[in-house]
Amino acid sequence: MKAEEITARWRTEEEAVRARLGAPGVASVDQVASRSGMEVFEAIFAGTLPQPPIGDTLDFVPIHMAPGLAVFQGRPQRRHYNPLGTVHGGWFATLLDSAVGCAIHATLSAGKGFTTLELKVNMVRPLNDRVPLVRAEGKVIHTGRQVATAEGRIVGPDGKLYAHATTTCLIFDIPNYSEGSSHEQT
Fold first, then answer.
1. Which residue, 26, 53, 30, is CA-closest to 174?
2. Alpha-carbon distances, residue 132 vs 50, 121, 176 (angstroms)
3. CB–CB of 127/75 below 8 Å?
4. DSSP string, the chain
5. How many CB atoms lie within 10 A of CB 96?
6. CA 140 to CA 11: how far, in whole Å?
7. pTM, rounded to two decimals
8. What is the C-alpha to C-alpha distance for residues 138 and 65, in angstroms, rounded to an integer?
9. What is the pLDDT of residues 72-93, one digit of tens each?
10. In this structure, is the dihedral angle defined by the CA atoms of residues 142, 44, 112 and 53, taken in order, positive or negative?
11. What percentage of residues in the chain have a pLDDT greater than 70?
12. CA distances from 140 to 54, 67, 148 (A)
């Protein structure tokens, strides 16, 4: 398949996802803690939980989630440029952190959370706004009781690799949450 055909398919998939997403916002701890990772993503894709605002800020959107797999799509924009006229490394890192973190989150049961302990990003090719879309795909390598690892890649519609990453995440019980209880946020 040619890059133009892949770009067209990716745009169509993004439009379908965006049509279902709710407004950007932050769900309550209870809304997230009472669901498994996959249930959280199903609710985000259904528009019953808000989409995280970081995607709106940096022009990326979740495309697909499955246990151990997360795909995000982003649009490199001039507003993401560094002083050298290419997309800032922080944009790469944020997109990859989202993909690898959500791949791990999609494996977690209700009442479990995670945080990134380490993120290692290798940018192998610069990005600019002449690349219409890129995808970041995160895949779990291992999920244990307390630690999970994942890897991710950013690729363009032409198959070019722009960056790759690995992460180590800490898995924990969500504080002040127990199934069936009600909590107020302060």
1. 30
2. 26, 22, 43
3. no
4. --HHHHHHHHHHHHHHHHHH---B----HHHHHTS-HHHHHHHHHHTSSPBPHHHHHHTEEEEEEETTEEEEEE---GGGB-TTSSB-HHHHHHHHHHHHHHHHHTTPPTTEEEEEEEEEEEE-S---TTS--EEEEEEEEEE-SSEEEEEEEEE-TT--EEEEEEEEEEEEEPTT--TT------
5. 30
6. 26
7. 0.92
8. 10
9. 999 999 999 999 999 999 999 9
10. positive
11. 95
12. 22, 9, 8
Query: What angle (nearest 5°) sits at the alpha carbon of residue 16, between those of residues 68 and 102?
Result: 20
Closest CA to 134 of 30, 11, 1: 11
Q: How far from 87 is each of 37, 62, 115, CA to CA, in Å?
A: 30, 20, 25
C-alpha–C-alpha distance, residues 111 and 106, integer Å: 13
Answer yes or no: are the C-beta atoms of 110 and 34 closer than 8 Å.
yes
Residue 183 has pLDDT above 70, yes or no: no
